[in-house]
Design goal:
By secondary structure, the protein is α+β, with helices and mostly antiparallel strands. It has helices at about 25-35, 40-50, 75-85; strands at about 10-15, 55-60.
Length: about 100
């Protein structure tokens, strides 16, 4: 724990749930409290993880690529790319 009683991690591996979030749900309110406006739970998991990662930490996430484009994920992309200087992506073309 750091001085603000916030856990910090050096590494994280995620396979977050891929669910839509209702605009008026408690989950959406909690994500807004950490500065994220998003319509899907997996980007919420990624954002919360990014905020808990120590400087220089690393994480891997198995997610759909939908966050890479479109207006729904603009807020997430902005936060994510501002926080991470190095970003790698692998795209798998099969859905089986």
């Amino acid at each position: 724990m750091n001085g603000a009683n916030k856990a910090e991690f050096t590494h994280a591996i995620l396979n977050p749930p891929y669910l839509k979030i209702n605009a008026h749900s408690q989950v959406r309110k909690l994500l807004r409290a950490i500065g994220l406006e998003t319509s899907n739970l997996y980007t919420g998991f990624m954002a919360a993880t990014a905020k808990l990662l120590k400087s220089g930490g690393e994480f891997v996430a198995i997610t759909p690529r939908t966050f890479c484009n479109g207006t729904y994920f603009r807020n997430f992309r902005k936060m994510f790319l501002e926080r991470y200087k190095s970003y790698w992506s692998w795209v798998f073309h099969e859905h089986s």
